[in-house]
Amino acid sequence: MKWFLVALVVVPGTIGDVLNSAGMKHQGELSDWSPQGLWRFLVQVSKNWYILVGIPAMALSFFALLALLSSTTLAFAVPATASSYILETAMAQYLLKEKVDWHRWSGSVLVAIGITLLAV
Amino acid sequence: MRNHLVLKTIVVSFVVMATNVFGNYALKLGLSSGAGAVLGWAPMPYLRALAQPWVIAGVLLMLGWFISRLMLLSWADLSYVLPVTAFSYVLSALLGATLLREKVASLHWAGIFLITLGTGFTIFTRPGTTPSGDMAK
């Protein structure tokens, strides 16, 4: 059961993040920081299908994390789900076509290990 | 232009991290002070918890976190945003150590060091490496 919950945290969380990132790449850079510009940004986000599908995926991941934390220890839950950093970086490289050089790979791996150590 | 991009990225990253740290802190306070056990599959305890002031504050802060993160993702790559905003783990640990007088174990200091190093490796790369904006006006 606990590995099912880990999968339910990592997979929808990764899908949600990738969809949100794809949605924002599709929408374009926020450049107008006036109140009207920020409002237009929010209206565009609310009509962006990538984001609208990404939000339930992230919500599912969040509630699965709460359920995982209630049924296991922090020392298990956090390292198990920290792997999503590496999975998401791979998705960013292969699905979103980002240029992920060794700096970014090192960054993701070091962060995942660091988060694991914080939970021990 | 380059300086403007760096400044904008640093400021919004900081907002993402601050709303995340304080949002989690407010949720933790709210859920541990009267909301009771909400962890499970039944929806009612979650809805009851949403009436707690600290939980409301936490949810609003997490909404701010989500929107500021979308703003950041509008020009920065996901592979950039993830390690850079992971620095919020370091901020949480340092806030706990300084404000709440929580003891930080040596393994935790190692974790803080590795996350800082990971953020440092990424923060000096170009935030965006893909074309964007086919929907932009």
What does this structure look like?
- The complex is a heterodimer of chains A (120) and B (137).
- With 120 residues, chain A is mainly α.
- Helix content of chain A is 82%, strand content 0%.
- Chain A has helices at 2-27, 35-46, 49-71, 74-82, 84-94, 102-119.
- In chain A, helix 1 (2-27) crosses helix 4, helix 1 runs parallel beside helix 5 (84-94) and helix 4 packs antiparallel against helix 6 (102-119).
- Chain B has 6 helices and no strands.
- In chain B, helix 1 runs antiparallel to helix 3 (53-73), helix 1 packs across helix 5 (87-98) and helix 4 runs antiparallel to helix 6.
- The longest helix of chain B is centred in the first third of the chain and has 31 residues, at 2-32.
- Chain B is globular and about 45 Å long.
- The model of chain B has no long low-confidence stretch (mean pLDDT 84).
- The interface between A and B is large, with 50 and 49 residues.
Give the CA-based shape of chain B. Answer: globular
Secondary-structure element order of chain B, N to C: HHHHHH
How much helix is in the residues of chain B?
over 70%
Total strand count of chain A, please?
Answer: 0
Number of helices of chain A: 6
- Largest beta sheet of chain B, briefly? none
The Cα radius of gyration of chain B reads: 18 Å
Which structural class should the secondary elements of chain A be placed in? mainly alpha
Q: How many structural domains can be distinguished in the coordinates of chain B? A: 1
Low-confidence stretches of chain A: none
* Major beta sheet summary of chain A: none
SSE pattern of chain A, N- to C-terminal: HHHHHH
Structural class of chain B: mainly alpha
The parts of chain B where pLDDT drops under 50 for at least 5 residues are none
User: Helix proportion of residues of chain A, in percent?
Assistant: over 70%
Into which percentage range does the β-strand content of chain B fall?
Answer: under 5%
Distance between the termini of chain B: 21 Å
Oligomeric state of shown chains: heterodimer
User: Mean pLDDT of chain B, nearest integer?
Assistant: 84
Count the domains of chain A.
1
